[in-house]
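// run 5 | inverse folding | seed 20
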């Protein structure tokens, strides 16, 4: 096994719990602004999360949950417009400080930087959303801490396809054996494992019952000193929160 050189983070659900009170709310605001009567409840949104990518999710909703909607002639442009408005609302919410990082994220990233490890992001969400989250919830300079931000439509096939992780590693000139991924969802780990990456998982409310075959470990949260995680699968070797020593142990290099 090669020495660990880089940490690659998913964003939604992994760095921050963004879906229920962030993305979902922003979608609903965009729908209301467009005078659509669509409302995505917490429960419905859980089903819609089967599909990653906001534009793809709107189409999935129309195909499966709102088949009677009279579609406009240019459906693609209509979805693109709705999604632009959604991104504007979502970025506004982040700028207002409404969405914090998950416990432990800031500490782990500080430790990784201090140890000289390289950092990247691999996500299906829109690049503006990543910038807004990192700048508002992590640090005004946090964008510069990440060597590669692989996001959104940069690859046509979104998670669970491995492409976004493969793209990020190609940009860094690293092999899967030199990296480790952090994920929160089944679609996410299918993508990271598909790209050959050892993957550490911390679930959230929407993903806690999903399958995480092939995960190095599955936790209920990243944990902090005084805020221990529960190990849902795997072996934390007695640790109670995820630090770099545990990351390296799970990576094996
Ligand atoms: C995240 C997503 C995204 C966000 C919405 O998945 O599925 O679609 O919900 O983002 P992952 P956009 O954490 O696996 O990357 O609306 O910007 O697409
Ligand atoms: Mg995720």
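// decoded
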């Amino acid at each position: 096994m090669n020495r660990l050189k880089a940490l690659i983070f998913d964003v939604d659900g992994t760095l921050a719990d963004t879906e229920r009170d962030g993305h979902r709310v922003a979608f609903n605001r965009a729908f209301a602004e467009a005078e659509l009567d669509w409302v995505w409840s917490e429960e419905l949104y859980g089903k819609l999360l089967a599909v990653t990518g906001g534009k793809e999710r709107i189409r999935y909703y129309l195909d499966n949950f709102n088949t009677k909607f009279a579609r406009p002639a240019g459906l693609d442009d209509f979805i693109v417009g709705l999604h632009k408005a959604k991104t504007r609302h979502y970025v506004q919410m982040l700028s207002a400080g409404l969405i914090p990082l998950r416990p432990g994220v800031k500490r782990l990233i500080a430790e990784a930087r201090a140890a000289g490890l390289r950092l990247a992001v691999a996500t299906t969400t829109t690049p503006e959303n990543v910038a807004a989250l990192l700048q508002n919830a992590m640090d005004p300079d946090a964008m510069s801490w990440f060597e590669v931000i692989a996001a959104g439509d940069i690859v046509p096939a979104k998670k669970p396809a491995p492409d976004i992780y493969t793209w990020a590693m190609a940009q860094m000139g690293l092999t899967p054996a030199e990296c480790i991924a952090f994920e929160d969802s089944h679609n996410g780990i299918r993508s990271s494992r598909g790209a050959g990456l050892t993957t550490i998982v911390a679930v959230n409310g929407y993903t806690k019952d999903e399958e995480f075959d092939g995960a190095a470990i599955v936790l209920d949260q990243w944990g902090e000193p005084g805020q221990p995680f529960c190990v849902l699968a795997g072996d934390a070797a007695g640790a109670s929160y995820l630090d770099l020593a545990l990351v390296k142990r799970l990576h094996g290099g």
